[in-house]
């Protein structure tokens, strides 16, 4: 089954189950007060890809080279060797394009969104995908992982990547720089990609603070002067500049799929940036509703079966007795 079909089936199953009255749908999980994340403001991104390079350095991942351009990392999509990517949306021709033909374009940064109610966590049968109850970081434990790749299917952002070319392949994805051996967040540091961003297009902070900052930016108009933060929401390093574009009145990740801890602002419709249109209800809530329906629904048949066995035994005993 393809990833998209899997997600659709979960949604349809939940709908059937709930409308048939056989299930009580579970709500989206709430966000932790101390959840951390990043705010990517595409209007500030200059496409320098310093974030991509820093991410590779921290995660010790090799560049992805193409023939004829051996000196440049040419990754165009997330992969098991590339946990974040900068893509360009071309406003002139539509779609993602590396070559821009006029001034109407926007960059887009992709990585794990650290979903509030993560599909990858919900489907993992061995709890190798985990969400920290305090920081909300979604991490992956390679020692627990059995390589079933359910998480790959269940991610609406197509993020987890499996190492198909390794004998004992593993799942790779951004862990917000807080995995075993890195632990930047636990040590009070910020993520590598926000640390090196020269324009503050990508900043680190608590989701609460980042959401408030995103809402402040939505009040701005193109040409207004604004003081932007560099690296993190509470950084003493700020700079003043003119707002480059009218913000779309939409904070991606505030509500999509139950919300994410990586939030996105843009000057072009956010769906142009390669992000999916998602309902507010998380896929995890949908799929767990289906699971609980299946398991819950088995209580009734099991009860009936137990009753039948009891009756059959009683009648058999009764029959014996009567004879
Ligand atoms: S973006 Fe995908 S991999 Fe990341 S937390 Fe959400 S479901 Fe999991
Ligand atoms: S948070 Fe860390 S792992 Fe995730 S994209 Fe940024 S640098 Fe890479
Ligand atoms: S480092 Fe900042 S400005 Fe450069 S590509 Fe990454 S997000 Fe954009």
Walkthrough of the structure:
The protein is of the alpha+beta class. It has a single domain (3-286), classed as Alpha-Beta Plaits (2-Layer Sandwich), CATH 3.30.70.20. The protein contains 8 helices and 11 strands. The protein has helices at residues 3-19, 50-59, 119-123, 150-154, 192-195, 207-218, 283-297, 299-322, and strands spanning 36-41, 85-90, 105-110, 129-131, 138-140, 161-162, 171-172, 202-206, 225-229, 238-242, 262-265. The protein has a 3-stranded mixed beta sheet. A hairpin with an 8-residue loop joins strand 9 (225-229) and strand 10. Helix 1 (3-19) crosses helix 7. The model is unreliable at 299-312 and 315-323 (pLDDT under 50). The site of one iron/sulfur cluster has 13 residues, from helix 3. GO terms for molecular function: 4 iron, 4 sulfur cluster binding; metal ion binding. It is found in: Cell envelope. Its main location: other.
